[in-house]
Design goal:
Blueprint lengths: L1 H15 L6 H23 L12 H10 L8 E9 L3 E8 L10 H10 L17 H33 L9 H31 L8 H15 L10 E9 L10 E9 H8 L5 H7 L1 E7 L1
Parallel strand pairs: 2-3
Antiparallel strand pairs: 1-2, 3-4, 4-5
Helix pairs in contact: 2-7, 4-5, 5-6, 7-8, 7-9
Length: about 300
Amino acid sequence: MKTLFFLAALFAAGTQAREPEDLAALVDEMAVLERILGAALESETAMSGPPFPDGAPGALLDYVDRHMQPWFETRVGTIESEYLARQGILVSLHLRRKPSVQDLPNALFTMMAQMGETRLPIPFASLPPDELAALKTLADELDETRKRQDGLTRDWHRELRDTGASGSVRQEPSEPVMQEMRAVAARERELDAAIDAEIKRLRDIVEPKQEPSTDDVHAALVQAVCDYAMLKSLPDDEHLTLRVGQDTAPRDGWRPGRQWTYYVLAKQDVVACRHGSIDAEALRERAYVYSRERP
């Protein structure tokens, strides 16, 4: 009997559940908002031009195409919206962290030096040609050293074949070959260290091209809301919240974190901005704004 009473109460509660008014229209408005804000972000953060200007060596272009795609991906990761009854619309936007010059592969600098290319991939600036001269000298010597090491290894294998044919069981290279192999290996380590130090120096003198600041990106989002957000179906006492997430650089070798910034905009303020009563800067000043960082 108690079970029947519980089920009856549950069904009664289910019949009392309410759905927000104009939910279908709200969903349509959210889809429009996603497109508007996505377009605003792409316009503000887009990287124009090819990775290298015309005339870059084909091998260098192939390397960039295979190993550096994150540098040329769209800045916008995801845009999702949802409606919270009696609260308003929440739009979550995730912006990818753009790699910096410190993230460029060492191999890229070495290839550029050996090919005579001084223009770093967009959005990085060029290096003066004479700045790459020392790296080219080191890289060329390293190539020759490795070729010498390969030659010594072949000599050793030839010795092994010869001693095997004569019935000897010696597996070690002869002392002259051994000494030279050790010397060449030591020089290879020295050159590797010198190349790493030179590339670090080059990174430190690169001046990256100006990128939009976080504040510029957020201002562009609020401006897009001011210009295009209609919110006709959103109740007058509710809000539009922008939740903007940006990746942060890894700390101490850990995975990147994510900084979330919230802009809570009252519908009446968005409408006032849409009608020209206030501008986007005033709309942003009236918003509740706060941030939090999480993994």
